[in-house]
Design brief:
Elements lengths: L1 E2 L16 H17 L10 E2 L7 E3 L4 E6 L6 H5 L1 H4 L12 E4 L4 E10 L5 E7 L6 E7 L5 E6 L15 E7 L3 E10 L4 E3 L1 E4 L1 H36 L2 H20 L2 H5 L6 H26 L1 H4 L1 H23 L1 H28 L3 H24 L7 H29 L4 H65 L5 H20 L8 H18 L3 E5 L11 H22 L3 E9 L2 E8 L6 H6 L3 H12 L3 E7 L2 E9 L9
Parallel strand pairs: 2-6, 14-15
Antiparallel strand pairs: 1-9, 3-13, 4-6, 5-12, 6-11, 7-10, 7-13, 8-9, 8-11, 15-16, 16-18, 17-18
């Protein structure tokens, strides 16, 4: 993820830094800037995201599009007035933008508005998983852009929202106009089906979508297992060939639908571009050999059989070519698959005309699949609009085809063992019914467990925050109140105590921010919070932090312990050492991450400080022990060297 102009917090923290009366002033200034650049966006159709009449809306007609055939344009380039005017607006009101197979990249400009009095959260979905690269540029409060880079060739973890499609959460401040930019590029066909969702509706749609995908792949699995049993029982190679075709087809569809990227190879890069055509070509090879065996072309139609063998050899050539250069062979491979599919169907019709029994079933099963294959190819070439039917047609027709071919194979089995046909149908129906019943039970159980887990998590987090507020901020405020009531503290000291309480509150809030096991992000948060305080005291901060391994045990509770330990170290330096410089560094030693804080102030006797009954060092020791870490001090006249050793893999103990 690339972030331009962002601090240690995400873009959604931007409005929190704008206080009180200044918020409206900054809003007016930003509106003024938009008016000054009105000519650049004159062609943009603005969508009021706060007034959605439906759960979701297609964004196609709201995009202004700029083609980048040279792949050289950057965000700064497309924002220039002379370049921004080259965007083409007034797109057709269709489900998706489609540009077929192209070497160009496309920049999309989207103008969203929030006319409401409160911030609006929306989910921007790009429902095409085969886009190789997507850059999402979102404006933030200070006028710059936060940029996210993801795509099929990048690790799945780069996606800001975990979904088989590309989903970007968006928050629009109250009374705001924001311009978003997207850059798309693809080795496969460039198709951009974009929708803006209301969050709750999107989550409901997401659940239904994954249940539907589970149903399809569950059905394919049942078909594969059923035909594997038939192969074991009958030793007929046609069942094994059907299994190879069904497996390859399921794999190809899992790539096209984004499920393979999410569950099979989330960290793959180049393979993600290759896998789509590669899987479809494997499925074509499997289907060619299945067709030869099913129609018995070797015995009945030798000429057709020779042609099918030649096509299988061509498939091997395209497989090798796709592996060498996915970009070069993307369009030829798609065209070749279309030609092979049409050729096989024509030969099946010829065999049916010759009154071959198996060909009747084959033609019936293959008709729906061929129709969907034609629609998909036309969609990839940009000759047919992308919609639910064209995008999911291969999956629906594949399910229909596999079921019809199962009947064809069952009929073949009846010719071998006619008496067993009823049992085979009953087993098949029973497997499907049990699968559907089990899926429904699992869905209900999963939802129930999710609700229980959510309630438990909320309860535990609430208790943790209450305890920390009571022990930290509450205790400090009560102590300060008592001292103030007795007149033993002047205004400067009261302000100092209140600043410490505010720091405690901010740390408690920061501990709830997701850091994704990233200690460096946690340290950056602490630096952001304590930086103003250090500057006000004239202490220079030397930041010598290096990359360290992720700490997979960094949850909000443990994050707060680390923040408290480091805060106490900084507080001791500010209060007692009269230091002029603080150095913060990180290093990895064996199976630990070591954080060191060094100052050049007055030293102290560690043993005396521990025996004095003070709570500062004792609290640091206690918190470190609770997370399986260790702290130590090395102090002399030249300054103090504080060390925090954090385990990389495991923690022990708990803080009561």
């Amino acid at each position: 993820m690339n972030v331009y102009g962002a601090g240690p917090h995400s873009v959604f923290d931007g409005d929190m830094r704008i206080r009180g009366k200044y918020r409206h002033l900054i809003g007016l200034l930003l509106c003024g800037l938009l008016l000054l650049s009105a000519d650049a966006f004159a062609a943009d159709k603005v969508l009021d995201a706060s007034q959605l009449e439906q759960d979701s809306v297609s964004l196609t007609e709201y995009f202004a599009v700029l083609e980048d055939p040279g792949l050289t344009l950057t965000l700064a380039d497309v924002q220039k007035t002379e370049m921004a005017g080259r965007f083409k607006g007034e797109q057709a009101s269709i489900a998706a933008l489609s540009y077929g197979f192209t070497h160009s990249a496309y920049w999309l400009r989207l103008h969203l508005r929030n006319t409401g009095n409160h911030p609006v959260e929306r989910m921007l979905e790009i429902g095409y998983p085969l886009l190789s690269s997507i850059q999402f540029h979102q404006p933030i409060a200070d006028g710059t852009y936060q940029s996210l880079m993801t795509g099929s060739v990048m690790p799945f973890a780069t996606r800001p929202y975990k979904n088989r499609f590309f989903v970007f959460p968006v928050i629009l401040p109250a009374h705001s106009n924001q311009v978003f930019y997207l850059r798309t590029q693809s080795v496969a066909a460039t198709i951009v089906p974009a929708r803006l969702w209301e969050p709750q509706a999107f989550h409901a749609y997401e659940r239904s979508d994954y249940v539907a995908q589970a149903w399809y792949f569950g059905m394919v699995t049942a078909m594969i297992l059923f035909n594997l049993l038939l192969f074991i029982a009958l030793r007929d190679a046609v069942y094994l060939l059907y299994i190879s075709f069904a497996t390859s087809m399921a794999l190809a569809l899992s790539v096209q639908n984004g499920l393979a990227k999410e569950f099979l190879w989330p960290d793959a890069t180049l393979w993600s571009d290759i896998s789509s055509n590669f899987s479809y070509l494997l499925a074509v090879v499997g289907f060619i050999f299945f067709t030869r065996r099913m129609l018995e072309t070797g015995n009945n139609f030798p000429r057709i059989d020779r042609q099918l063998k030649i096509l299988a050899g061509c498939c091997v050539f395209f497989l090798i070519g796709t592996t060498v250069s996915a970009q070069t062979f993307a369009m030829p491979s798609t065209l070749f698959i279309f030609i092979v599919s049409t050729f096989i169907f024509g030969n099946a019709l010829f065999c049916a005309f010759k009154r071959q029994r198996s060909a009747y079933f084959f033609v019936a099963a293959y008709s729906t699949f061929l129709l969907s294959a034609i629609m998909t190819c036309l969609m990839f070439f940009g000759l047919l609009h992308t919609n639910t039917l064209t995008f999911n047609g291969m999956q629906w027709s594949s399910a229909t085809e596999m079921q019809l071919l199962a009947f064809a194979l069952a009929d073949r089995f009846s010719m071998i063992r006619r008496k067993a046909i009823d049992d085979v149908k009953q087993i098949n129906a029973s497997l499907e019914l049990r699968l559907q019943t089990r899926e429904a039970e699992l869905a209900v159980s999963h939802n129930r467990l999710r609700e229980i887990e959510l309630r438990q998590t909320l309860s535990q987090e609430r208790q943790r925050l209450m305890q920390d507020m009571h022990d930290g901020l509450g205790s400090s405020l009560v102590s300060a109140l008592r001292v103030v009531e007795h007149g033993r503290m002047d205004e400067t000291e009261v302000a100092h105590v209140l600043k410490g309480c505010i720091d405690d509150l901010r740390l408690a809030i920061d501990s709830m921010e997701p850091v994704d096991a990233d200690l460096l992000l946690l340290l950056a948060t602490l630096r952001f919070r304590l930086g103003p305080r250090l500057e006000s005291t004239g202490i220079a901060l030397r930041w010598e932090v290096q990359n360290v391994p992720e700490l997979d045990w960094l949850d909000p509770k443990n994050t707060l312990h680390i923040l408290r330990i480091l805060q106490e170290a900084f507080t001791n330096i500010i209060k007692h050492t009269h230091a002029t410089e603080i150095r913060v560094a990180t290093v990895t030693v064996n199976d630990h991450v070591v954080v060191t804080i060094t100052d050049n102030g007055l030293g102290f006797c560690v043993e005396d400080a521990l025996k004095s009954g003070g709570k500062g060092l004792t609290n640091q020791l206690r918190r470190a022990e609770s997370i399986g870490a260790k702290v130590s001090w090395d102090s002399n006249d030249a300054g103090t060297f504080f060390t925090l050793r954090l385990p990389i893999k495991q923690i022990s103990g708990s803080l009561d």
